[in-house]
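Structure in, sequence out. Go:
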C-alpha cells in the first residue's frame, strides 16, 4: 500500500469515527425544577410563572398553535385585541424522540384559558441565548427561528395573575 493510499484510508477512518462519536461537548440545557420555578417574561409583554408544585399561570399565551384545536380559543377571540391568559400544570421532560438526553422541554398542560376550562398542551424548549438560559416557544419549524423567547426575571415580575380573566 502506498503512502498516499494509506493516508487516504486513515482520513476516511477518522471521518467515519467522528460520525459515530459526538465531537465537542453537549451544550443542551438540562433544566432543573429549581431553576425553572419563578417568573419569566418576553419582550412582547408575555409572562409565565412556574411554582414548585408543578402549576403555572400565564399572561399572553401564544395563540398561533392553539388555533388548530377546535373550541379552545374563546368565541370572538381577536389576536390584535385580546390576550390569552391561562393556567395549568407543567412538567420538565427530555425530547420525546430522545428520552435519555437532558430535560430541555417544558410541557404546559393548559387547563384554563381566558377564564374557560380547556385541555390543551403546549411545549417550550429550554435553550441558551447569549449565554443565558431562556425558554422558547416556536411558532413554526424550529429551523426557521420564528419563536417567542422568555427570560427569567431576577426578581418577581409584576406579571401573570393567579386567576386568568375572560377576554372581552
Amino acid at each position: 500500500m502506498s503512502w498516499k493510499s494509506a493516508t487516504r484510508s486513515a482520513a476516511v477512518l477518522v471521518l467515519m469515527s467522528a460520525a459515530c462519536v459526538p465531537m465537542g461537548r453537549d451544550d443542551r440545557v438540562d433544566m432543573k425544577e429549581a431553576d425553572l420555578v419563578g417568573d419569566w417574561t418576553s419582550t412582547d409583554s408575555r409572562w409565565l410563572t412556574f411554582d414548585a408544585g408543578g402549576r403555572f399561570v400565564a399572561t399572553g399565551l401564544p395563540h398561533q398553535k392553539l388555533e388548530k384545536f377546535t373550541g379552545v380559543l374563546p368565541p370572538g377571540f381577536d389576536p390584535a385585541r385580546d390576550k390569552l391568559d391561562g393556567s395549568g400544570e407543567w412538567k420538565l421532560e427530555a425530547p420525546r424522540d430522545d428520552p435519555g438526553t437532558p430535560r430541555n422541554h417544558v410541557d404546559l398542560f393548559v387547563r384554563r384559558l381566558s377564564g374557560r376550562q380547556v385541555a390543551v398542551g403546549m411545549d417550550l424548549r429550554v435553550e441558551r441565548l447569549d449565554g443565558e438560559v431562556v425558554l422558547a416557544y416556536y411558532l413554526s419549524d424550529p429551523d426557521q427561528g420564528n419563536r417567542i423567547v422568555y427570560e427569567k426575571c431576577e426578581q418577581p415580575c409584576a406579571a401573570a395573575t393567579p386567576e386568568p380573566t375572560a377576554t372581552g
